[in-house]
Amino acid sequence: MQSSKLNRRLKLFSLFFLPQCSLLVFFDLQFFTKLVAATPAVQIEEIAQQSSATQEDAIRAAAKKVLEEGVKLYRKGTVESLRQAIKKWKEALSLFQRVNDKQWEASALLGIGTIHSDLGEKQKALQFYNQALSLYRLVGDRRGEAATLNNIGAVYSALGEKQKALQFYNQALTLNRAVGNMSG
To answer: Does the reported pTM lie above 0.90?
Structure first.
């Protein structure tokens, strides 16, 4: 993989993906256990709902931490580190699926697709990109949809299917203009 190509891909990836990768603090579930023991029965159901939400927050935070570990591996740019990044992002994807966070699922899928594309595994990349595209459309994330359409276009271009690539690039361009994303 050429260094300038990798740097360009990292820059594009960073513009879209990295801003979403912030480390969150885990919540102490023991606090809720102590609170339940000292609380009247009427409030226990409300606290149980908070505890469930907190567990989801903890899972989401763990997923984002794993995702960040994958980003660090991705930045190394070696074949070995890229393979390790795929494993990390698949782990994060599984966690995001547990809490039904479609937005982050899509981001993880986009990242996995990007690595497969970088490794020359274009058909695998398309599989992950198409999954991400469906989720971005489901949640109404037009920027994510545009980034994914652009990546699909790049895969088709690399496969020599220039007309098909142009169709995806045009869709991405239209969406980027609609959301005011001039860098896109």
So the answer is: no
